[in-house]
């Protein structure tokens, strides 16, 4: 701890201990804790306490029952936990009604238990309960009491403490603890209704992830029993947790997977599946499926389906996901749910009729099912099912009732499925089915781009950009796209009143133009107006658009064009650079300026070779420098060094450092005999540093640039910039001062009273 | 209480409610879907329509070929279009006391009722309902009268012949009652019988019931109605909307605590969400126009068109369509656009506030000012000079059987660049298009129906909690085409009572109370006595006067002065004898104390027996029996009046008198 902070500490402790002082907000206290944590990690906490007796005083003070705010209490407890302090303070605190205090007390309890057990356990392996230190015995006894209690909050509290213990402590003693307490937990499971089911699930998962199962396989039985006892909604998180475990008995995994699949199996059952269609639960779960397990209320049913879909979505990409993965029935279930939601499913039972009424038009379920359907594109499916997937996605894309968020998800899922059904590499076209889908997609897209809802136009454009990026080179795609109105509509949307849409239109136009797919824009407004090239269109956006997003998008497109050698750029690269840099350097949006420097860096790399390490050949360097001077890159870069937005300055620093590295000392201009006149440049830099940005740099000689570059301490500048701009404000010293200053005002007022 | 159901159309209802000696007609909607069976009336001679082949029976018999024409496999009646009227035989319509109109779409049959049935009552409606209703009727009459058609086909209506016709003519109901359109004179006469009312205004009907219109949120001036007496309340819910469109929001709270709620006028397209449809409308419009095509929107001259114009106002600039002309063609286009701006008090709050700015409440004023929206009475005249393509045309009639729309269908139908967008939900768009087949023009169906959907209805019913719900039978089962959609029906407890055309329902509640007023001087003379805490009683002797369904208790007349005349008294002149007022008794007789009292007064040899209803006290010596029950006491003694009176006085000591 630095001496200045140590000096402020006693005053701070006094403030914290004084119930009359309105101590700053929770964030302040959190920051203080973070700082103390950092300090204790750096050195001995014992020493810290010895050197700063005020801390010990504060802790003792807080322990006395008094009128302290729960925030301070919780702070002190956590601080005490950090310092591993006295142990006799927690019992009366644990029942505190404040959630903060209770949780802090719980953590402290675990901390103390861990400390107490760690010592004796060393070298002895597992200890019998009667050999545990008195302190630990008391804590365990307390937990046992709680677990046997009839009061639900006490049970919950104890379960939370145990969850923390098994989650954070890795000593062998935890195995003993489980042996000791598992009968009580088992008894909780038998109660009807089961108390604190969520906390129980958390505890079981925490234990399952600890070292306990290796020595105590009984845990798996408990988990299995819990799975069968909990309601479907409560069992979901446990089942998902079990399936994510690296190591667990196959039977339990099968059971857990069955729990997760059951709601979807019900959905499948509710629509007349032809006999012989593989069910979801065949072989997955032994118990006969209760078709009417779906909750009767709409909100509960929707909640169950959404959480089930979310669990399965998370599970799908994991290596330890259940195998075999029932891809086909899951696909069928996702499609069926989506059909229930748009009213096109034909229910075959009473449950189906109920599901239909509950799900129709439900946006939450639609979003969850579309996300899940998208994830399922990672696996294959039977041909007719994939056809159904595309059909239902098209229904959603076409339906006027799809909400903008649902539509966005439908676009995303469609893209994923199109990607996954791509033909093997080497073949240059989409497969015939995708080709058919594409035609309908473009018809939908055409209509969506005319939607009065800007979110819809926006997601339509994003979809177009991504499709073009992926298939812009393929003949089938090009043909279908060019036969549609879509490219024309996309360029018309460059004039959209909504800036987000304009930004997306810029990206789409950039991508279409890269692939040579952009028709010259014309609108019914100006059917015969002079037609601009895409480059001109986007430059117009960059120089005239009043909003930042479209301008940033234009810069991204230009960067991409330069990198990929877009024809419009390659024609006259220097002219392109000069125009874009001029626009970007004067932009008010710092992201546009950063993008401008990024563009400049790429230009530089193209001139000097990015890959080859070391200096560039002198001839190439001289030529490059002249080009850089012509496009006025240096004025932009030097100015940016003093930009009030740090990322701009950093980017500029990187750019100049790259250039300096490329200009090896050997190619020093001194060799040429005459030393360049750097005075005007340095004078300008000086003024810019002082904030006089209006000053122009004027004509630059390449030699002068190099000389200035060499004379500048760019490394130091980079280091300064690397420190966050608020590094002063974020120092602990400043924090302590702030807390004290806030209270200081109160002190003054008090003095005034006399 | 009875409900006579004269129309089977759920959104064009016509019901008669008999309630407390009043006969109230609720709406008189006109089912115009019958016109779909007729050939369109072209404004300009159409060679295609006039050259359609006549229809012949399977056996080659051609006697109907003048009346029936065939077009793309469909058969149409070549005659002046006719409408299906509400039932006129179920109840004598001359006995109807009042007609309550809920919105301008539900009054189109009014002239048929008021002018041809002997109706002598009053019609109640709000001002915008009357004014816009008049426009709709005027447009209808104009559309039909300006294309006079000599032929009036009737042969096909013969029951024996109708059986031989193809569907849908074969299945058309009550064709014999179908009538030609009314005249403007009949319209004016019908409208003159209307009395204007304002929201929440209480209108007394013969002192028996009170009717009140409430805002229903569906259209300018649209109302639901409360019909109530002192102890009964019937709510009549017709076209209502909870969406924020131009009209004043729906008043739901006043519908609470109804004994019966009659529910009609729900959305006709429960699966189409109006917001989505408006989006669809705009997108398709823009796509067509951008491709150089024209857009035709068949519509009514008032209602959804205001909202569509408002959406387009916001949309056309962003979609780059500001140079595209929008035409609104209707004989009443001008009045409709102007009327909408002056009914400020009937508009939603948002639009009302604009009036004070001052700004016209609807943005179509600005569209007109900037020449983006132009309106014309018909395609003839100025329009033909200004007409520029590509364009968007709003015009009637949505049935595509008459009005300027017929001309545009003929004009634009051949090109696939053009699009017809159906926004009115009243007619099946496929049937509407049938006489125009084959058609190259694109057809988009975006029905915009802002009326309540079933989710909103179930929320409404939960909120207002009526004891009974009565609705058209169509609402009590899922739509035939989507039998699995059990969510598309009225779901309430107890289940709704359903009705169909020409049915009479006995509404399931009995009247139990009637309110009686006490004159002040009579009330003044009453002396209430508290018999229990909070309950006081007083005896009233009065004369009950009943007149105009009002009941009043008046003080009894003073004792009649002896009259000198020798006139014989008539029975009806008898007045109640008010002099011998006996006090009323209350309380109970405690048997033990009563026995003690008897003993104190010298009776001996008393025996008490318990019976099922009370006690019997036997005075054996006096051979007397006193039978005490909860609500009566009998003294049975053997012709000893003195003893009886003595005993009676002892009994009375235990009772309170008032």
TrEMBL record, chain A:
- Which stretch is the leader sequence? none
Q: InterPro entries, alphabetically?
A: ARM-like, ARM-type_fold, BRAT1
Location in the cell reads: Cytoplasm
Q: Which domain of life, per UniProt?
A: Eukaryota
Q: Which PANTHER family match?
A: BRCA1-ASSOCIATED ATM ACTIVATOR 1
The record's comment on protein family reads:
Belongs to the BRAT1 family.
- What's the protein name? BRCA1-associated ATM activator 1 isoform X6
Q: Which gene encodes it?
A: BRAT1
From TrEMBL, chain B:
**Keyword tags:** Cytoplasm, Nucleus
Localized where? Cytoplasm; Nucleus
Does Iron show up as a keyword for this record?
no
The record, for SUPFAM superfamilies, names: Metallo-hydrolase/oxidoreductase (SSF56281)
GO biological process terms, semicolon-separated: negative regulation of transmembrane receptor protein serine/threonine kinase signaling pathway; regulation of cellular response to growth factor stimulus; RNA polymerase II transcription initiation surveillance; snRNA 3'-end processing
Instruction: Please give the start and end residues of each transmembrane region.
Output: none
GO CC terms for this protein? cytosol; INTAC complex; integrator complex
**Chain intervals for the UniProt region annotation (Disordered):** 548-573
| InterPro entries associated with the record | Beta_Casp, Integrator_9su, IntS9-like_C, Metallo-B-lactamas, RibonucZ/Hydroxyglut_hydro
Q: What SMART domains does the annotation carry?
A: Beta-Casp
Q: Which residues form the Beta-Casp domain?
A: 305-433
Q: Which family does it belong to?
A: Belongs to the metallo-beta-lactamase superfamily. RNA-metabolizing metallo-beta-lactamase-like family. INTS9 subfamily.
- The protein in question is named Integrator complex subunit 9
Origin species, per record, is Odocoileus virginianus
Q: Which gene encodes it?
A: INTS9
């Amino acid at each position: 701890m630095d001496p200045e902070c140590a000096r402020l500490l006693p005053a701070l402790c006094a403030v914290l201990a004084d119930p009359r002082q309105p101590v700053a907000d929770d964030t302040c206290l959190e920051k203080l804790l973070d700082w103390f944590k950092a300090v204790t990690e750096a050195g001995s906490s014992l020493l810290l306490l010895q050197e700063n007796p005020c801390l010990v005083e504060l802790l003792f003070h807080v322990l006395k029952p008094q009128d302290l705010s729960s925030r301070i209490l919780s702070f002190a407890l956590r601080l005490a936990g950090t310092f591993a302090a006295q142990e006799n303070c927690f019992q009366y605190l644990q029942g505190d009604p404040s959630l903060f205090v209770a949780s802090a007390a719980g953590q402290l309890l675990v901390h103390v238990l861990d400390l107490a057990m760690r010592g004796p356990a060393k070298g002895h392996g597992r200890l019998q309960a009667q050999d545990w230190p008195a302190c630990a015995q008391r804590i365990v006894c307390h937990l046992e009491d709680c677990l046997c209690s009839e009061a639900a909050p006490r049970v919950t509290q104890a379960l939370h403490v145990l969850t923390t213990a098994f989650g954070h402590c890795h000593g062998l003693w935890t195995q003993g603890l489980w042996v000791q307490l598992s009968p009580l937990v088992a008894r909780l499971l038998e109660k009807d209704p089961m108390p604190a089911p969520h906390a129980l699930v958390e505890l079981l998962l925490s234990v399952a992830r600890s070292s306990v199962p290796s020595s105590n396989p009984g845990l798996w039985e408990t988990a299995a029993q819990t799975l069968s006892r909990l309601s479907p909604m409560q069992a979901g998180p446990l089942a998902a947790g079990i399936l994510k475990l690296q190591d667990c008995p196959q039977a339990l995994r099968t059971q857990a997977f069955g729990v997760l699949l059951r709601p979807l199996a019900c959905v499948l059952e509710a629509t007349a599946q032809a006999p012989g269609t593989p069910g979801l639960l065949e072989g997955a779960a032994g118990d006969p499926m209760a078709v009417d397990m779906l909750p009767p209320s709409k909100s509960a049913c929707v909640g169950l389906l959404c959480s089930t879909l979310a669990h399965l979505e998370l599970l799908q990409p994991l290596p330890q996901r259940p195998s075999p993965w029932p891809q086909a029935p899951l696909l069928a279930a996702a499609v069926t749910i989506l059909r229930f939601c748009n009213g096109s499913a034909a229910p075959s039972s009473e449950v189906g009729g109920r599901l239909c009424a509950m799900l129709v038009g439900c946006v939450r379920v639609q979003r969850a099912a579309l996300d899940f359907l998208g994830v399922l594109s990672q696996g294959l499916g039977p041909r007719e099912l994939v056809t159904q997937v595309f059909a239902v996605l098209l229904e959603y894309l076409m339906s006027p009732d799809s909400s903008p968020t649902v539509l966005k998800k439908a676009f995303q899922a469609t893209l994923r499925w199109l990607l996954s059904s791509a033909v093997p590499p080497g073949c240059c076209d989409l497969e015939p089915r995708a080709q058919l889908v594409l035609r309908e997609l473009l018809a939908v897209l055409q209509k969506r781009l005319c939607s009065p809802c800007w979110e819809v136009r926006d997601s339509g454009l994003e979809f177009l950009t991504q499709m073009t990026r992926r298939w812009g080179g393929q003949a089938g795609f090009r043909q279908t796209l060019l036969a549609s109105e879509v490219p024309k509509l996309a360029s018309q949307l460059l004039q959209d009143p909504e800036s987000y849409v304009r930004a997306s239109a810029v990206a789409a136009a950039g991508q279409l133009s890269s692939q040579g797919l952009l028709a010259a824009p014309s609108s019914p407004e100006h059917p015969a107006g002079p037609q601009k090239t895409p480059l001109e269109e986007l430059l117009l956006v960059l120089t005239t658009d009043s909003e930042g997003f479209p301008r940033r998008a234009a810069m991204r497109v230009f960067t991409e064009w330069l990198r990929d050698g877009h024809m419009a750029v390659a024609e006259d690269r220097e002219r392109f650079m000069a125009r874009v840099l001029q626009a970007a350097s004067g932009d008010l949006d710092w992201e546009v300026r950063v993008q401008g420097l990024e563009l400049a860096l790429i230009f530089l790399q193209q001139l000097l070779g990015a890959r080859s390490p070391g200096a560039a050949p002198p001839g190439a360097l001289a030529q490059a420098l002249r080009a850089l001077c012509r496009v006025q890159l240096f004025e932009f870069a030097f100015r940016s060094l003093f930009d009030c937005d740090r990322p701009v300055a950093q980017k500029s620093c990187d750019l100049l450092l790259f250039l300096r590295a490329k200009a090896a000392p050997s190619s020093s201009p001194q060799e040429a005999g005459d030393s360049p006149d750097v005075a005007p440049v340095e004078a300008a830099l000086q003024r810019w540093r002082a904030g006089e940005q209006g000053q122009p740099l004027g004509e630059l000689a390449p030699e002068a640039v190099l000389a200035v570059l060499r004379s500048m301490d760019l490394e130091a500048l980079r280091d300064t910039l690397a420190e966050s701009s608020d590094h002063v404000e974020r120092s602990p010293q400043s924090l302590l001062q702030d807390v004290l200053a806030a209270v200081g005002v109160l002190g003054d007022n008090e003095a005034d009273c006399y | 209480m009875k409900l006579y159901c004269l129309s089977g159309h759920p959104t064009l209802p016509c019901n008669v409610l008999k309630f407390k000696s009043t006969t109230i007609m609720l709406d008189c909607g006109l089912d115009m879907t019958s016109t779909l069976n007729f050939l369109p009336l072209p404004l300009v001679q159409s060679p295609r329509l006039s050259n359609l082949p006549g229809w012949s029976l399977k056996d080659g018999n051609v006697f109907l070929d003048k009346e029936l024409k065939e077009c793309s496999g469909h058969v149409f009646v070549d005659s002046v279009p006719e409408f299906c009227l509400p039932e006129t035989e179920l109840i004598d319509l001359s006995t109807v006391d009042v007609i309550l109109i809920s919105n301008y779409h539900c009054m189109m049959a009014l002239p048929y009722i008021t002018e041809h049935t002997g109706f002598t009552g009053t019609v109640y409606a709000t001002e915008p309902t009357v004014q816009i209703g008049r426009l709709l009727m005027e447009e209808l009459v104009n559309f039909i009268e300006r294309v006079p058609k000599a032929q009036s086909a009737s042969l096909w209506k013969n029951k024996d012949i109708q059986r031989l016709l193809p569907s849908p003519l074969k299945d058309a109901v009550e064709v014999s009652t179908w009538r030609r359109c009314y005249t403007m004179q009949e319209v004016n006469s019908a409208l003159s019988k209307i009395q204007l009312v304002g929201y929440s205004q209480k209108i007394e009907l013969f002192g028996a019931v009170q009717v009140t219109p409430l805002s229903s949120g569906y259209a300018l001036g649209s109302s639901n109605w409360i019909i109530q007496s002192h102890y009964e309340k019937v709510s009549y819910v017709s076209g209502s909307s909870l969406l924020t469109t131009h009209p004043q929001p729906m008043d739901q709270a006043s519908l609470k605590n109804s004994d019966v709620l009659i529910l009609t006028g729900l959305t006709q397209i429960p699966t189409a969400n109006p917001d989505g449809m408006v989006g669809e409308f705009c997108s398709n419009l823009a796509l067509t126009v951008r491709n150089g095509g024209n857009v035709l929107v068949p519509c009514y001259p008032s209602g959804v068109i205001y909202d569509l114009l408002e959406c387009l106002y916001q949309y056309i600039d962003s979609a780059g369509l500001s140079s595209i002309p929008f035409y609104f063609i209707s004989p009443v286009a001008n009045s409709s656009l102007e009327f909408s701006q002056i009914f400020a008090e009937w508009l939603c709050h948002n639009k009302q506030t604009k009036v004070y700015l001052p700004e016209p409440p609807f943005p179509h004023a600005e569209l007109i000012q900037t020449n983006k929206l132009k309106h014309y009475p018909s395609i003839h005249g100025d329009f033909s000079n200004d007409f520029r393509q590509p364009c968007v045309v709003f015009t009637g009639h949505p049935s595509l059987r008459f009005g300027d729309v017929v001309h545009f269908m003929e004009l634009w139908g051949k090109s696939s660049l053009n699009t017809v967008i159906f926004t009115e939900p009243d007619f099946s768009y496929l049937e509407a298009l049938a006489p125009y087949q084959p058609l190259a023009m694109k057809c988009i169906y975006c029905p915009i129906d802002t009326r309540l959907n079933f989710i909103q209805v179930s929320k409404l019913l939960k909120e207002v909690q009526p004891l009974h719900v009565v609705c058209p039978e169509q609402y009590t089962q899922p739509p035939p085409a989507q039998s699995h959609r059990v969510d598309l029906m009225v779901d309430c407890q107890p289940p709704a009572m359903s009705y169909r055309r020409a049915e009479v329902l006995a509404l399931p509640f009995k009247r139990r109370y009637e309110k009686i007023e006490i004159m002040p001087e009579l009330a003044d003379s009453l002396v209430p006595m508290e018999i229990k805490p909070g309950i006081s009683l007083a005896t009233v002797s009065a004369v009950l006067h009943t007149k105009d369904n009002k009941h009043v208790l008046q003080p009894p007349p003073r004792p009649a002065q002896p009259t000198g005349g020798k006139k014989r008294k008539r029975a009806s002149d008898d007045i109640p004898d008010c002099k011998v007022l006996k006090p009323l008794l209350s309380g109970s007789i405690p048997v033990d104390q009563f026995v003690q009292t008897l003993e104190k007064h010298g009776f001996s040899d008393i025996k008490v027996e318990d019976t099922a209803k009370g006690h019997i006290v036997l005075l054996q010596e006096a051979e007397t029996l006193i039978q005490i029950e909860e609500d009566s006491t009998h003294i049975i003694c053997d012709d000893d009046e003195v003893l009886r009176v003595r005993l009676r006085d002892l009994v009375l000591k235990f009772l309170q008198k008032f």
